[in-house]
Amino acid sequence: MTHQTRCHYEVLSIPPTADAATIKKAHRQLALRHHPDKTLSLTPEEREQSACEFKLIQAAYECLSDPVERRWYDEHREMILRGGLSGGGGDGTTTPSFLFDVVPYQYAGCYDGYSDDTPHGFYSIYQSVFQQIFQGEKDGYVSEGNIDYESMSNGHLEEVSFGNSKSSWGEVSSFYSAWECFTSCLSFAWADEYLLDDLKGAPNRRIRRLMEEENKKKRKAAKRERIDEIYALVRFVKRRDPRVIQQREWMVQEQVKKEEEKRREAVRRKEEIAVAKEEWMAEAERTIREQEAADLDAGRIRLADLDSDDDDYGGGGAKRGRKKKGGKRRKGKKNRNRGNLEDDSNEDDDNNNHDDGTMQEGTESSMDPSKETLINDTIDMDDGIAAVASDAAISNETNKDSDETSIENPQPIDDASSIEESEEEEPDSWRCECCRKDFKSEKQFDNHVKSKKHKEMLKKYERKLQREAVADLLDDLG
What we know:
Blueprint: H1 8-12, H2 20-34, H3 44-64, H4 67-75, H5 77-82, H6 122-143, H7 169-179, H8 196-200, H9 205-240, H10 242-304, H11 315-321, H12 333-363, H13 369-408, H14 417-425, E1 430-432, E2 437-439, H15 442-450, H16 452-477
Antiparallel strand pairs: 1-2
Helix pairs in contact: 2-3, 11-12, 11-15, 12-13, 13-16
């Protein structure tokens, strides 16, 4: 190793029981004191010593700031300070010579810089360390009586190399992936508590089996300890590998770029959705305007093509002229109703004339001219009666309009007696003679008058009266 091994707690001047806040504070104070930018006024020798001290401060902080690495350091601190077992040797009593000791290399002072040219650099040191670990596995595997290297459970470790600063990320990733899954192919028989002679001298089979089980536990514990040492070494090296640090920084930058691109894409899509929504609303408004225009045109055509039967006796006109729930009546309703009633009376006259003409044609051969003249006079009289009834209906409708107008525009009332008189004069029921129905309110009667069924019954009733009048006249003449 390039520097004398010093305890991390001694470098930071803190006790082993110091907490994370104390470690951070001590590191900051010492780093500011020995930072290369703070030692420009010193001599070259002092600057070199301060630079070495600064490296030790950084290494101590990196180790003690990581809880996992600090716990491992506390457990092996005495061994690290002693220098551990020499790379490939030892006392030969408890640890075989082929088992490479990795404890001294979990200390930042074991390498000097990250240059590829120096033999004490990061890449050169750990390239040699991992090669010696695998070589120890091979030597131990052969010492146990095995001759086929292909049957080694960790033989794939020979195919990967630690590399240098110019190695690609694929090679670096393959190396760490292989060593992070390290498992030893050795039996660890040297950890047995009871040797072969002890097993043979066991008093009975039960005691011998207990000895064998205890040996298995010792071997398993020794193998687990060896695997943990390799895991700790790999974690220590990977945490300080500049290639891994650079890759992580690149991944962070790529993640930031992806998030920024995702944010821009979200903004772009939001703008597109807003534009599409505006276009859709404009198209919907245009479609609605076109539909309204088409509906207005279609409505005018339908009103012009309406038959006069649909507005007989003022029913249809009154219905269209009034809102469903007591709304204001449209202007010109009175004239429309009057026109509808006149059209209805004209249509009834035409129907009567048509019926009379039919009857005249049927009786033309058996009736003398004087009787025919009398019948025509009677029909004209009935037409006059119908016209008078139509005028009366128009008068009633006019009075009703005036009443509704007075309701919409009430006039001041001198006294309450007029209200009581109007209430007394209002009938208790309204009766439709042609339909033979009674109604409790004027509104019900008005709705009935506007109904299609009432119009049909009214036409039938008028024709029946006309036929009865003609029959009575014929009986009188006969």
